[in-house]
Amino acid sequence: MQRSIATTTSPPTRSASLAGGFRGRLRDVLERADPAYVGLFFVALALGIYVFSNPARIGWYDHFVWQADAYLHGRFVIDYPVADGPFANAYLNDVMPLPSQPGQPSHGLLPFPPLPAILLIPFVALFGLATDSQLVAALLGAINVGLAWRMTSRVTDNRAAAFLATLFFAFGTVHWYAAMLGTTWFLAHVVATTFLFLGITLALDGERRERLRSSLERQRGPSPGTPTASDSLGATFEARSLFLGWGRRLRTLVDPLQFMAGFVFGLAALSRLTILFGAPFFVFVGSGGSYTRRAISAGLGAVIPLGLLLLYNLVATGHVFNPAYQWLFQTEYHGYMPADLQIDRSLGLEDLGHVPRNALIMFGWLPIVNPECGLSLLDRTCALVRPDPIGMSLLLTSPAYLLALPLVAAAWRQRLVLGATLAVLAIGFVVLMHFGPGWVQFGFRRSNDFAPFALILVTLAIAWLGVRRLTVALVGISILVNAWGVYWGVVSGW
User: Fold this and answer.
1) Domain positions in the chain
2) Is 36 exposed, middle or buried (0-12, 13-18, 19+ CB in 10 A)?
3) Structure pTM?
């Protein structure tokens, strides 16, 4: 795919490239290495850094541990509020208290989709409410980095570009912050990213398989066979059987690999619902041979987990859509926002009226600057610059995302570029419609929902531009800024 883009654009001159010696050595090492070993290297590196970044892991917000414990006790609702004993949850936000009779146990309903809690069930079965869900998030986040390498190395044959792009995802985006922190909302992002990477990579594998098959068919030419009598008899029987006839039509409409890509993509939405709006990617990318067949195959796969989610909501709450979030939106404290950015409760949970405020935070929100504090960036008592807990512009936290802009402008007609771009735009717009930007965070945490799709564009951009001073500098700056943000998030107790 990198080569096809290079044929439609003019690559930059080599004058600004990195020194040939370093670049050549990196390329040689990566070309000789087994891709699986490179992936394991990334997992080990990320796990060490993610765990070391937040060794205390206080674990104040562990909603999913309580939810997994409720499942193990045959309930959908958690014990709430629990104020006494070694494990308490009375301080938790984002819980809808349920009425109870005097003297009877009280419970609460969580608004979150269930997949993170389901994944925690084995850990909670072993360790109970002492389960360190933050450590699970760090482990799963490290696996995500390995999956990022697996995906980027399929997006381009340029392994140096894939390597640099994977470094960017691992340490130059807010995935690092989410994985090392791992509290409720961030764990949901990490889990969703795991399944999203898996779904995207299945679609890419289908795309590569289909291109290889088409190439072999062109080389060999058509090889018609003579139908046998049994073939004719089978065709006649299928034509006269309604069941077999529909089965045959279904086989022509559904590609199995694209179906599985859609199914895994749908599972990702059981952790973060907004990921669903990345569906356009699977219309443009994957196996199936046509836009219609790709869309139908992936759509049928995604419908299964989504149908299960609706059934879960109906059984757990009596409603098709979980009512807890709407209740919390109307009742919880939102005073952490500045006076000029207050959340408007007269609007809906998802509303166009929220877009201007969230867009300002996503693209234009600056850190807190204290000129009187001198030049220190890490002084806990008085730092020149420190992150604002409301958020920080994505362009400041991960400037390497800017590499995608010239790539999209030059190659938007390529199916992979167009599919990834539409997915980023669709998810990004829905995220901006949400009533809140994400309370107490570094950067803009909801960008995790479209980060794997955006990573495709960054990977292709690096492959096109080359591993050169510009691309390395933007990735390096992204890593430094996120390391700074992780430091402040930990020492500030966010």
Assistant:
1) 2-57+133-215+243-491, 63-130
2) exposed
3) 0.90
